[in-house]
Structure formats: C-alpha cells, structure tokens
Amino acid sequence: MKLYYSPGACSLSPHIALLEAGLPYDLVKVDLRAKKLENGDDFLKVNPKGQVPALALDSGELVTEGPIIVQMIADKAGKNLAPPRDSDERYKLLEWLNYITTELHKNLGPMFSPALADDAKAFFKDRVMSKFNYLETALAGRDYVMGKQFTVADGYLFTMLMWATDRLKFDLSAMPNLLAYKARIAARPKVQEAMTKEGLLKAA
Length: 204
What we know:
The chain is built from 7 helices and 5 strands, in the order βαββββαααααα. By secondary structure, it is an alpha+beta fold. Strands 3-2-1-4-5 form a 5-stranded mixed sheet, covered by helices on one side. Strand 1, helix 1 (12-21) and strand 2 (26-31) form a beta-alpha-beta unit. The chain starts with a strand and ends in a 7-residue tail after the last helix. Residues 1-81 form the GST N-terminal domain.
C-alpha cells in the first residue's frame, strides 16, 4: 500500500493506524498548495479531490477520506484497532469517527486559512471549545475514546488535538482529562514513529 500524506495534516491519523496495524506501506509526500508530489508529478492525477489522506491499494484502487481509510486498515490488520463489523461497538466507533470529522476536523480546518478574518476564527474556536468541553467529560475515567482499548478513532482525535494545541495554540489547561489523553496517545511508540517519519519529532 502507498499512503499519500502531508506532514502534520489529517493524514497523520491513517499513518498512525498503519504503524499500529503493522502493515507494510510506502509514504509519498504531497505539497498540498502546489498539488505536487515530491518528484514533481501532478497529485491531482492520483487523487482528483486534491486532498490527503489517500491510500493506494496493491490492487490499484485508491481509497480516500480518513475515517474510511482507518477502518479499512483496522479490518486488514485484525489487531483490535476497531471492533468487529456489525457489532454494537463498531457502530459506537463509527459514531466517534463521525463526531471527530464533522465537529472537530471541519471546524478546525478553516482556522488555518490566512484569508479568514479574526472574528470568523473566533467563531470556529468557540464551536470547537464547546466540543472539547464535551470530550473532557466523555473521557473521564477512560484511557481511550472506546474505553480501555486503543482504536483508530484515537489516532484521529489525537491529530485534531495536535492541531488545536500545537498549531493553533488553544489553551486546554482547564481540561485535564483531555490533556492527559493527548499525552497518553503521544507516548505510544507507533505514534512517535509516525510523527518522526513526518518530521514532526526529531529522531532519537
């Protein structure tokens, strides 16, 4: 498989999933502004959506959209990164993935635009902070979003927390559960490996 990624983008989530799954893959870096690959090829010829993540399968098929990609990785791995298909727990995982993508990802993304006015950024920040307040309560007494088991939803939520705290400088000091959760995920060896490979952490 081949993962098309941009360092620190939402493609970090499937990158973490691939490493946690122990599946073989190649990394292909994408310049999202220029829509070019490192070798100069046109990324739009790979993924007409022009977005990462995109996962090229060995069959030649291309899968896009992060929440779908991470489920596919989990199902291929069989390592408890997602509950079994058709189980009640699987639908709970789908609920989490949808919450993260619609309530966090889609509200945080616009805040990176230099064209967005300050009052618009404040609007999005207020929306996201209300979601983080919910997560602060939801994570009380839990190691991971599904309870005691790390799943692909955790890699996705961690990526969004990285965006919020490390890049957008949100102050989450009043949310100890959320900060402890972020630190717990960050300490996982495969998460550190993904971040190192993307140049987000210095190699030890």
